[in-house]
Specification:
With 141 residues, this protein is of the alpha/beta class. It has one domain: Rossmann fold (3-Layer(aba) Sandwich). It has a five-stranded parallel sheet. It is globular and about 40 Å long. The model has no long low-confidence stretch (mean pLDDT 90).
């Protein structure tokens, strides 16, 4: 069974501080931090993962759009699907927990800068909390 990878995008792959002007990629979507992309690709080369994208940006673009964005930034794997959008959940933590329960996941890895996720009832080695300005750094691999 593959691991389900549940990554966010802001603070994981996009690390532009809020006070700085956004840098756009040639496809006119926000650019990703190239070091963070390299670290994600390294993780994906080591572990077989199914990517379930958790970013709230999933409400603004289609799965096809995000797969093209990932491809344009040389991410070696496509996104299988978005995290389920649970209308009854009031936070990312609740959404992720509900998804894990609904899918009965045992093998998963969450990569996010959302500090509230630290209070999840999960194993610490299944959660990587990143820094908004640094993203998915080599030290987090």
């Amino acid at each position: 069974m593959n691991t389900t990878l549940i990554p966010d995008i802001d603070g994981v792959l996009i690390t532009t501080p809020s006070w700085k002007q956004d840098i756009l990629h040639e496809d006119r979507y926000l650019d990703f931090n190239s070091s963070c992309v390299a670290n994600l690709n390294k993780l994906l080369s080591i572990h077989k993962c199914e990517i379930r994208f958790s970013s709230t940006r999933r409400n603004k673009k289609s799965l096809t759009d995000f797969n093209n964005i990932f491809k344009n930034r040389h991410i070696d794997q496509h996104i299988s699907d978005f995290l389920t959008d649970y209308k009854n959940c009031s936070s990312r933590r609740e959404e992720v927990e509900q998804f894990i329960r609904d899918k009965r996941l045992n093998k998963y890895l969450i990569i996010d800068d959302e500090k509230s996720l630290q209070s999840m009832k999960t194993y610490n080695n299944q959660l990587i909390i990143t820094d908004l300005k640094i993203g998915f750094s080599k030290g987090k691999l």
